[in-house]
Amino acid sequence: MKAVVTSLAWIALAATPALADEAKFGPPNATYQDECASCHLAYPAQLLSAPSWRALLAGLDRHFGTDATVDAKVMREIEAYLVRNARTPRRGEGAVLRITETRWFVREHDEVPAATWKLPAVRSKANCAACHTQAEQGDFGERSLRVPR
Fold this sequence. Notes:
Layout: H1 7-14, H2 30-36, H3 50-58, H4 72-85, H5 103-108, H6 114-117
């Protein structure tokens, strides 16, 4: 049976690299999944803090070069889900808009050679599914990790 990591457990997990193999998240909100996964992976809410999610959602009209705006009702539902499930911000941390720029991501991926990010099968640090074969199911554990060559 898959373990589902809650927001509080994720905080402990992020602080304990030895447990990174157990990085599994429950299914996202259906509206969030429908809207956001139509363009990219519906990243687990626990990967950013509430201030980061709010800042990201406030700029959907210029979302990394794309207009990703949604209607107000959808926005409220998505924001409520993300903020409710966000991780606790670290002391002194501002709103980080890119998961790939969080301290946790940098620490977890520091051994990945720069050339790996440029592989045609990877293309970007934001392309989690290139290496984490079960990312779309919320599983970022090392057991399902397959780095393209």
